[in-house]
Design a protein that fits this description.
three-stranded antiparallel β-sheet, about 120 residues, 13 strands, four-stranded antiparallel β-sheet, about 0% helix
């Protein structure tokens, strides 16, 4: 996967005088559309690309085709946020079922069950 931007990030200085030196951290901060390559998920109808993994937060992309589904999964230690780029999906989070479309987003808190997703063919 080709990343668009690599840069050195410097952490904010500590308020204590213990650490006078700052150590740069190399991080990928941007991705071009063409750089995000989705992969098939075994025994599933959706594709997935992981773009960021931190201790308690991750990002990626789920590509759900028309009539496709993504099964339920526990989020474990990860906080997850989802954004709908196009189309509409039916989501279930903690017993709450809702439909959300282009431009909408939702989250799954740490330790909750990652919702099953279903593509919903609804016109806008």
């Amino acid at each position: 996967m080709r990343r668009v931007q690599r840069t050195s990030l410097f952490p904010l200085p500590s308020t204590s005088h213990q650490s006078a030196r700052l150590t740069p951290t190399v991080a990928e901060i941007a991705y071009a559309h063409a750089a995000i390559q989705t992969r098939e998920v075994h025994n599933s109808t959706f594709r997935y690309a992981k773009t960021l993994t931190l201790p308690f937060f991750g990002s990626g992309m789920v590509d759900l085709p028309p009539q496709g589904q993504k099964k339920k999964k526990n989020s474990r230690k990860m906080q997850m946020v989802f954004f709908v780029f196009y189309g509409r999906v039916v989501v279930e989070v903690a017993g709450n079922v809702f439909s959300i479309g282009k431009g909408g987003m939702w989250q799954v808190p740490r330790g909750w069950c990652l919702p099953p997703l279903r593509y919903c063919p609804v016109s806008f």
